[in-house]
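Hey,

Quick one before I head out. I ran the complex with zinc ion overnight. Inputs first:
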Amino acid sequence: MNLSLSTKTNPQHTLILGIFEDGSLTASGKALDHAEKGLIAQLFKNKTVSGKCGECFPVLLQTTKHQPAALLVGCGKAKEIKESDYRKLITAAVKTLNSLQIKAADSALTEINVGKRSLAWRVKFHAEVSMEALYRFDHYKTSKDPVHLQKLSLLIDTKDQAAAKIALAQGTAIANGAAYAKDLGNEPSNVCTPSYLAQQAKVLVKAFPSIKLNVLDEKAMEKLGMGAILGVTKGSAEPAKLICLEYRGGAKKAAPVALVGKGITFDTGGNSLKSPENMVGMKYDMCGAATVMGVFKAVAELKLPINLVGVIPAVENMPGGNAYKPEDILTSLSGTTIEVISTDAEGRLILCDALTYCERTYQPEVVIDIATLTGAVVIALGFHATGLMSNDQALADDLLKAGIDSHDRAWQLPLWDDYQEQIKSPYADIANTGGRSAGSITAGCFLSRFTKNMRWAHLDVAGTAAMMMGTSDRMATGRPVPMLVQYLLNHAGE
Ligand code: BES
Ligand code: MN
Ligand code: ZN
């Protein structure tokens, strides 16, 4: 779908109009109602439309019988429209238009006030949400749900054109980055292996020459002494990869922002084998990696004036005769020794070597890791908030703010020293699990042992990167691409 801005409606297009619960309309709605001699007011009066949030009603006019002249979209109470309501009503409008097989539309939903959000914010969010509403992952389906809507123009005033143009570019880039992350996440693990991720990274850098790629194979990792990554990959027939991306759009000497993404292409739990029920959904265990790649795509598309590096340990976690076992002791790249209590706590093992490599290779200004790390974060925060932990409150605050700005939110958990007790080992420097209590925090504590010399934040996205409500509506979400791109936009001062 092509997204654009327009300062006037096109009579060939269907006009998307908001209607509130009390029957009131925004400027474009009032204009149409006036031109059609109170038609909309009549529809409200005879209760054909209610204005309930997300309820859609196509309006046919005598003059344009071939397609609805307008789509009325319920917005609820004018003074109480929240971000989630705005998402709901845009999604409903776009899906309804598409199911009506409409090809082109103009949206006046930009006229709706959403709390204190600016017009630029509404344009950006509208762009993101409408692209998301038409997202498909159907190349394995023999019968597909086609996309009919080809063109969507967001209506704005002439005076807002400059700000809206920037907002549209940002929203489109965020949506493209998130869709790319979703594509990678939704791909099954018999296709999406560590080598596939490395191959996709190659395709990405081909499309964006501003990004450089370096892939380390197992031999290179052995030479460096990445005992933790190599421990996890031992049971897999798929070779592990360490995928390193570099984007330099900022000052030559400026230290980069670093993103480290967990890339477990499938997590069986290894010899600490997961139950069959808990194993479904584990193809999404590389969504941290997918997020990093999605952010790179968006940043390259926007040509942001920043330096960014990405490090992705891509590994499959399998059980078997060659696999690592509980009570094995691994020596990480940092030299810290780790007693493996559970081979299912593999994410922190691949991340610790990637974080050390990141520190040594790039000396980043800040490092943010993104990982579907613990089931415990789903118990704590559900599917709505990403778990955030950090050793630097200013960085944590920046990420929380970016989450609010983008409406892709995180919630902070403490990393107090008290919790470090739980990952003590009688045999090694640390153990890779800390018991059932505070499972997300002890995972964060584990990572904190490898990031002491960096400003570091950890995003546990086990609940947010993919929705696993039922079996039929499982899908990658593309989160937290919006939050991180927003963080980088704020960082760049854009
Ligand atoms: N990939 C899982 C975490 C996960 C669970 C992601 C559910 C998405 C949904 C991770 O590798 C894992 O298995 N974590 C264990 C840690 C435990 C053994 C300390 C967990 O959460 O049970
Ligand atoms: Mn696991
Ligand atoms: Zn995992």
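The CA atoms of residues 194 and 314 lie 5 Å apart.

Talk tomorrow,
K.
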